[in-house]
Amino acid sequence: MLANDLSAIHTCISDYFDALYTGDTALLMGKVFHPNAHLYAADMNGAFVDWPMDEFKAIIDGRQSPQANGADRDERIVMIDEAGPDTVMVKVEVLVGTREFVDYLSLLKLDGTWRIISKTCVMVNDRAQQKAAAE
Questions:
Q1: Residue 93's domain spans which residues?
Q2: Is 73 in contact with 21 (CB distance < 8 Å)?
Q3: pLDDT in tens, 74-120
Q4: DSSP per-residue string spanning 34-93
């Protein structure tokens, strides 16, 4: 992988982390996600989630951001797997509020720009529930 591509991928993921923490949907939808991107997950009841970006945006816009709530910030890139010169899979761990997620982000390089085309995620822990159970 070329160094400038790796740097651009890191910038995209950094913008992703910033936008999730601050609730900046203009950054998230305008620069990070491709307009045709989708989010996939199984919800807490095991139902299939398939949200286009307008649904994901509405959810973020409808909640107070982790930053506004004074939540801790904790995120990291676990791995970047290059499938080809314009396709990578990035695994990240990210704290959103009190919920810890593992996200698999598929990125494509389109017209020279790396953007997320697909997000598949799972919540692995809720720190608030964990704290309540320990008390």
A1: 3-134
A2: yes
A3: 999 999 999 999 999 999 999 999 999 999 999 999 999 999 999 99
A4: EEEEEEEEE-TTS-EEEEEHHHHHHHHHTS--TTTTT----EEEEEEEEEETTEEEEEEE
CATH number at residue 24: 3.10.450.50
Q: Are strands 75-84 and 113-126 parallel, antiparallel or unpaired?
A: unpaired
User: Total structural domains in the chain?
Assistant: 1
Is-contact 98 127, C-beta < 8 A? yes
Q: What are phi and psi of 23, to 5 degrees?
A: 75, 20
Query: Tokens in use for 18?
Result: 């910033």
The region, left, alpha or beta by phi > 0 then psi within -120 to 50, assigned to residue 55 is alpha
106: nearest Cα among 34, 3, 6, 58: 34
